[in-house]
């Protein structure tokens, strides 16, 4: 049996009823084809996504083999409610190509104007670094000034910070850190990115198709796999 999935439209023309990464603007400000801010970039990506078909037909995954022994009723209910087959939550290849191309343009534009400077984050304990990212003071705006070792350290720490979910703010931090990460990396640096991607893939395997985390995870996975050359992690 095949499943048909339709995108729902909100009250505003062209807007989804629920935004995974909410923004305060309704139209993207683009200069010479390049979005001028993170919000403009997200709006541009949404516009591209809305050009896709409204209805998708996904082939149902083959049923799993019957268990050798039936679980007790209380546990069988948990088994029956497990997330959909992995193939149903994978992003479309065409979307991945379009998104990664747009991200490269956005990243190159942002990195041209950045001025990195020494930061005390590199010497912070893990807890202080966590407070730097997720404390009361919003430090996201300081990322363009962070040195590459600091960006890599924060990416590595996020492997543990994500735990069992990826929140809206965590997705913004990862997106921003990847925006200002130098694409020329050592094997050790690549290993950090691969760990982040694998963790996001593990989280994606636990979510349902309508989970708001799905888009966040696919964005981070696509950036690492397509933009940073880790194509086997998608």
UniProtKB/TrEMBL annotation:
<dbReference type="Pfam" id="PF04938">
    <property type="entry name" value="SIP1"/>
</dbReference>
<keyword id="KW-0963">Cytoplasm</keyword>
<dbReference type="GO" id="GO:0000387">
    <property type="term" value="P:spliceosomal snRNP assembly"/>
</dbReference>
<dbReference type="InterPro" id="IPR035426">
    <property type="entry name" value="Gemin2/Brr1"/>
</dbReference>
<dbReference type="InterPro" id="IPR017364">
    <property type="entry name" value="GEMIN2"/>
</dbReference>
<dbReference type="GO" id="GO:0005681">
    <property type="term" value="C:spliceosomal complex"/>
</dbReference>
<keyword id="KW-0508">mRNA splicing</keyword>
<protein>
    <recommendedName>
        <fullName>Gem-associated protein 2</fullName>
    </recommendedName>
</protein>
<keyword id="KW-0507">mRNA processing</keyword>
<dbReference type="GO" id="GO:0032797">
    <property type="term" value="C:SMN complex"/>
</dbReference>
<dbReference type="GO" id="GO:0000245">
    <property type="term" value="P:spliceosomal complex assembly"/>
</dbReference>
<comment type="similarity">
    <text>Belongs to the gemin-2 family.</text>
</comment>
């Amino acid at each position: 049996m095949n499943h048909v999935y339709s995108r729902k439209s909100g009250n505003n023309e062209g807007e989804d009823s629920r935004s995974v990464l909410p923004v305060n603007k309704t139209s993207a400000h683009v200069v010479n084809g390049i979005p001028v801010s993170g919000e403009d970039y997200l709006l541009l990506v949404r516009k591209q996504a809305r050009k896709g078909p409204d209805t998708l037909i996904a082939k149902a995954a083959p049923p799993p083999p019957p268990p050798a022994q039936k679980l007790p009723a209380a546990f069988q209910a948990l088994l029956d409610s497990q997330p959909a087959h992995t193939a149903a939550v994978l992003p479309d290849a065409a979307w991945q190509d379009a998104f990664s191309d747009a991200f490269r343009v956005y990243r190159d534009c942002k990195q041209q104007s950045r001025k990195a400077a020494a930061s005390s984050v590199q010497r912070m304990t893990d807890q202080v670094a966590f407070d730097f990212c997720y404390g009361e003071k919003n430090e996201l705006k300081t990322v363009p000034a962070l040195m590459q070792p600091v960006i890599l350290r924060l990416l590595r720490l996020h492997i543990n910070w994500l735990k069992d979910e990826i929140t809206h703010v965590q997705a913004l931090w990862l997106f921003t850190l990847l925006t200002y990460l130098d694409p020329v990396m050592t094997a050790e640096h690549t290993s950090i990115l691969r760990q982040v991607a694998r963790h996001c893939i593990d989280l994606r395997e636990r979510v349902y198709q309508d989970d708001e985390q799905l888009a966040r995870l696919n964005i981070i996975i696509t950036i690492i796999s397509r933009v940073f050359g880790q194509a086997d992690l998608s």
